[in-house]
Amino acid sequence: MKLLLKTSILIIPFIIFSFFYLYLSKDNSYPGADYKNFSLPSFELKNLYDDSLISNSALKGTYLVNIWASWCITCRVEHGFLSQLDDNNIRIVGLNYKDNKDDAINWLAKYGNPYEVVLHDYKGSLALDMGVTGAPETFLVHDQMVVAHYRGEINKMIWNDVFMPLIKQEGFADAK
Amino acid sequence: MLNKFLFLFFVSFSALTDSYYEFKNIEDEKRFFTLIKEIRCPKCTSGSLASSNAPVSEDLKKVIAEMIEDSKSDEDIKSYISDRFGKETLYDTPIEPNTYVLWYSPFVFLLICLAFFFFRKKT
Amino acid sequence: MIAEISHYLSILSTAIFMLTFSLVLVLDRSASHATLLIKRSYSHAFILFLISFLLYVYLALTDNFSVSYIAQHSNSLLPNFYKVTSIWSAHEGSMFLWIVFLSLWGFAFNLHNDSNLNVKNLSIGIISIIIVGFQLFLLVTSNPFEIVLPFAPENGADINPVLQDPALAIHPPTLYLGYVGFVIPFAYSLAFLINGKKSLDWEKKVKSWSVMAWVFLTIGISLGSWWAYYELGWGGYWFWDPVENVALMPWLAATAFIHSLSVASKSNVLRIWNLLLSIIVFSLSLFGAFIVRSGIIDSIHSFANDPQRGMYLLAFIAIILFVSLGLFISRFSMFDSSKNIKSLSKESFISLNNIFFGVLIFSTMMGITYPLIYELLYNQKISVGAPFYNAIYAPITILATIMLVASIDSKWGRPIDMKGSFSMLYISLAISLIGLIAIGYFVGNMPFIIMLSIFMGLVIIFRYLMLIISNIVHKKYTNTPSALAHAGLGLLILSISANSILSSEKVFNMKPNEIREFQNITIQFSELELLNKSNHDSIRATFSLNTEGKQFYLSPEKRKYFARGQITSETAIKIMPLKDIYLTIGEQLDNGQWVINVQLNYFIRFIWLSAAMMALSGLIIIKNIIRRRA
User: Fold this and answer.
1) In the predicted model, what is the mean pLDDT of residues C410-416?
2) Quick check: is A9 in a domain?
3) Sequence-ordered alpha helix ranges (H) in chain B
4) Are strands A92-97 and A117-121 parallel, antiparallel or unpaired?
5) Chain C residues within 8 A (CB-CB) of chain A?
6) Distance between first and last Cα of chain A
7) Which residue range(s) make up the domain with A131?
8) Do residues C221 and C175 make contact, with C-beta atoms less than 8 angstroms apart?
9) Chain C residues 269-308 with CB within 8 Å of chain B
10) Which of A67, A112, A145, C338 has the most beta carbons within 10 angstroms of its beta carbon?
């Protein structure tokens, strides 16, 4: 009985410490990345520029959905990288999040437009349906399925480590 | 003029519902207040929707109010939110095989300690 | 220049604490000349460190933004008070303060004379080496003295506006004083184990120190709860946030510890408990520091993620824990346990109490770590919150309170004797039942567990009241601190339960000049102002309220701070005898209406009153001990 007590007094803390050690050593380089798959929610939103209605069916193949807004300062930082991506690698659909239409259009005029099309999600309803908590966030969509979700601004390193492996792995050929 | 300025100042955007938090009856209202305390704010490092001013928290509160109006159950509402923002949004940890250890270990521990206590050598 | 001097003094202090430790190892600890040397060495090390810290305070007060930490957390526009408190608003500075307090406790204990030189010197040596470990942690991984080169910023980044608050400013120092105070019983109990003479009444020597640390911890936790209530806007006072829990665990262990200490040398088995508890309390304090500073847990309190710091702290705490547990295991057999605890004696109640507290600590630890375990096992995140903790704490607390009431009549070394107490017990049960029925009539349906909690809370209060009255009448001695603290516990349980069942809230959409009614309170939206203050703009909504024949104004605000663009909500609270009326404003709607949240929070002031009663009882215990010594 005493031996049991003695060992448990030492073993319990040992287990607790080993556990914390394991947890701390876990590789957690991209806490903003989430790879849970879900279907792109059905939506019908206006095109930012011409008010024409766009729904799921209009967007086929592989593309990024980038959540942005003119009031979002970090989006300005991310914008440069998105323009590079647009030129070379992948189609980008913009989701203008809780933004005034004119402000958004002016912003794109000023900084450039890397988006194939921009959806005006004034109420943020599609964003909420996709699990967006703010801007900027970026989703990788393939055949109506979301396969990756990154919270925060993306840059070259994040693009290479979070999105590219999936694109290569799944052989998303039509990513451009 | 003041109203417009205030409106812009707080970057407050239109609701997803027209009637904010005005419920048909007291039960619905109580459900609302309980739910917003038990659902975690997805953007904050910690804290419930009730204690958060974040835009996404405000949106979720409106959605919850709307779903209560639509007679959706607590389970439906929690599923809706956890499907989109992750299981970690539920402070009310579900009791399921993966969490049995959490929920039952305190009582097991209590029983073991009491066993040691009551079956000790007595003088 | 000053920054460099301050830095240098910290380094020098570390070296001298190391020297102190070496002296304790090498010299003849029973000799008085060695004692003097060790005493002086420690004092010098401490004074150097204190001067280093005071110089750092000077740096903050004089807006020295060449120091990176001060630049990140202070600002020239801050009032002096907040310039100083900004020092402990983040990791490096608060760690600095932590170690200052740790060495301060040691300094006070060091000055205090002890006839047993060997054990005293050993304990000083143990405290010194622990300080060295933390100082190295500070200087190597969390250096508050880093300089911004080559040009210092014009002004600081400013403190988070939410931290510019008096209660929140003194909450960390009070809490730290509590946490680190337990190094005294820890070091002394280890010294006792090393020394090996079981006749030494080490428990008596550390009792007043332990109670003082417990008092600070009690006050520190209550301050945090009080601040959360009036600042965070949701009307709650305890969220079971990981960092709240991590302060609660040492408090639970410390409470069990000081109860166990009161038995002192009356029972060998409890002496073993005392040793184990002194190790557990201090370890839980260190564990708290680890959890908060390693970034391992998501919490509003947690400081920035840094696994390197986490690893260092983990290793350091592991060493302290395994050395002390190892000592404990190898030496506790010096207590011959043939004298066991008698059934139904006071010692048995205290042992049972230790078990209940142990279960609460275990459960809290489980709740904090389970999300991490789950993530490691299933690669998915979950949260553990109030529903879990309430489910565990409520029944255990009720069991403990039943045992508490029974234990009032228990005796040392022999079975419980209820003769003469039956009438007091029956009267308290009867009054409590009446009280419960009265509340039930007012409220309607109550969950069973709440009824039980309210009932037990009342029973404790009335039973102790009966005890005090009876003792006055029969001219018998009353253990005042015990009665006060336990009555405080009864009040705490009663208040928490009443608060959860009686409180209510409602949301209104109102335009200026509109009137609403809620629970016999008339609320009129009388004014809306836009204010411009030095570091923020705000919208202030003033309401005229009318209830119970009284009329008063409440002005909640919504503020936007310039420095970080943060938006905060300021609550407006009216304190009434049994409840608080609590008002916050939310968003503005398209039609010009504002979302207004009204809450009635019952018995909330009594929660903090009960904490004050407990803290006061601790102070009385210390006063009694000092008196007895004189």
Assistant:
1) 82
2) no
3) 2-9, 26-38, 55-69, 74-85, 100-118
4) parallel
5) 276, 290, 294, 296, 307, 310-311, 314, 318, 321-322, 325-326, 328-329, 365, 369, 372-373, 375-376
6) 70
7) 29-175
8) yes
9) 298-300, 302
10) A67
Residue B26 belongs to a domain: yes
Q: What is the CATH number of the domain that holds B76?
A: 1.10.8.640
| Domain boundaries, given as residue ranges, for chain C | 418-491, 504-605
User: Strand, coil or helix: what is C304?
Assistant: coil
Chains with ≥3 Cβ pairs under 8 A against A? Answer: B, C
**Which one of B53, B87, B104, B118 makes the best mutation probe of the C interface by having the most chain C beta carbons within 10 Å?**
B53
Q: Which helix (H) or strand (E) holds A93?
A: strand A92-97
DSSP string, B22-51: --SSHHHHHHHHHHHHHBB-SSSSS-BSTT
d(CA C69, CA C72): 5
Provide, as residue numbers in chain C, all residues whose Cβ is less than 8 Å from the Cβ of B40.
383, 385
Which pLDDT tens digit goes with each residue over B16-73? 334 467 788 888 998 999 999 999 999 888 889 988 888 899 899 989 999 999 999 9
Is B59 close to A128, i.e. CB distance below 8 A?
Answer: yes
Q: How many domains does chain B have?
A: 1
Are B6 and C530 a contacting pair at CB < 8 A? yes
How many domains is chain A built from? 1
Residue A63 is part of a domain; what is its CATH number? 3.40.30.10
Cβ atoms within 10 A of the Cβ of B11, count? 13
B89 in a domain, yes or no?
yes
Q: Kindly give the pairing relationship between strand C567-570 and strand C504-510.
A: unpaired
Residue B58 near chain A (CB below 8 Å): no
| Confidence band for C270, pLDDT divided at 50, 70 and 90 | confident
**Apex CA C358: angle with CA C353 and CA C359, to 5°?**
100
Range of B76's domain?
17-94
- Give me the residues paired with residue C147 across strands: C67
A19 within a domain of the structure (yes/no): no
Which residues in A lie closer than 8 A to residue C313 (C-beta atoms)? none
The answer, for A109 touching chain C at a CB cutoff of 8 Å, is no
DSSP string, A7-46: HHHHHHHHHHHHHHHHHHHS--S-TTEE---EEPPP-EEE
Q: Which ipTM score applies to this complex?
A: 0.88
- Give B-chain residues touching A129 at CB under 8 angstroms: 84
Contact B56 A133 (CB under 8 A): yes
Residues 87..116 of B with a Cβ closer than 8 Å to A: which? Answer: none
Could you tell me if C448 lies within 8 Å of chain B, comparing CB atoms? no
Cβ neighbours of C375 in A, within 8 Å: 23
pLDDT tens-digit series, residues C529-573: 999 987 788 999 999 999 988 999 999 999 888 777 777 889 999
Residues 6 or more apart in contact with residue C20 via CB below 8 angstroms = C38, C41, C42, C45, C124, C125, C128
